[in-house]
Amino acid sequence: MDSRQQARPIVGIALKVASTFVFTGMATLIKLLSDRYPIGELTFFRSAFALIPVLIWAGWRGRLPAAFYTAHIGGHALRSIAGTTAMYCGFTALSLLPFADATAIGYAAPLVTVVFAVFLLGENVRMYRWSAVIVGLFGVLIILSDYADGGAGGPERSLVGAAFAVAGAVAGAFARVQVRVLTRYEGAATIVIYFSVFAALISLVTAPFGWAMPDLGDALLLVLAGVFGGVGQVLLTQCYRFGEASTIAPFDYTSMIWALMVSLIVFDTWPSHIVLAGTAVVVGAGLFVIYREHLLGIERTRSKRAQTPTTPLS
Question: Structurally, how many domains does the chain consist of?
Answer without folding.
Answer: 1
